[in-house]
Specification:
Helix content is 24%, strand content 40%. The chain is of the alpha/beta class. The strands form three sheets. The chain has a five-stranded parallel sheet with strand order 5-4-8-9-10, with helices on both faces. The protein has a four-stranded antiparallel sheet with strand order 1-2-3-11, covered by helices on one side. It has a two-stranded antiparallel ribbon with strand order 6-7.
């Protein structure tokens, strides 16, 4: 993935950022949203998402490793709800983990999501909200949904800072905004 220096401007809760445009396929670029290390932006996103989720009855927040971890932590703190991070690599201490496969647009290859054995009891029978930074193809979201259903959880809402691509495809997603795809002419 290469960036040619072009950017796409976004604004969340009064915070403005320039997202680099990166080619992910011939003639197709995306605006890369990366909140890692940007505390001001993480807090603005968590505040916006808290407002959007305030009327949903749920027990637990769930995300996939890695860029949305600071977001889910801030949201958990604000909403006083626990959270789980589904890992992308199995570690021996995870015990009998539940797993599902996914394909991310930013990696371009299959990945697995793992629910640590210690988190299985926390998730079993709970009403959960899936959280992501950007939902583009929906593969990570589908993987998270599959893992949590295998864990005995009920997915009651799915949320992201941004959806991307075909906005009609993501009408059911609670989002703070939408990012277009950038196609070369």
């Amino acid at each position: 993935m290469n960036s040619d220096g072009e950017t796409y401007r976004v604004k969340i809760g009064g915070i403005q950022r320039e997202l680099p445009l990166v080619e992910v396929a011939p003639g197709v670029r995306i605006a890369v949203f990366n909140i890692l290390g940007d505390t001001e932006l993480v807090e603005a996103c968590a505040q916006g998402m808290q407002i959007k989720l305030q009327d949903i009855a749920f027990d637990l927040l769930v995300t996939a490793e890695a860029k949305s971890i600071p977001l889910i932590h801030a949201l958990s703190s604000r909403m006083r709800k626990p959270y789980i991070v589904l890992r992308k690599a199995y570690k021996i201490y995870m015990g009998h983990a539940i797993e599902a496969e996914t394909l991310s647009i930013t990696t371009g290859k299959p990945q697995k999501l793992f629910l640590d054995e210690k988190d299985h009891e926390l998730a079993d029978g709970k009403r959960i909200v899936l959280i992501d930074d950007v939902i583009s193809t929906g593969s990570t979201l589908a993987g998270m949904r599959k893992v949590m259903e295998m864990a005995g959880s009920e997915v009651v809402a799915e949320a992201a800072v941004y959806t991307e691509g075909d906005a009609e495809k993501w009408k059911e997603i609670i989002a703070l905004g939408h990012l277009p795809l950038f196609m070369d002419d």
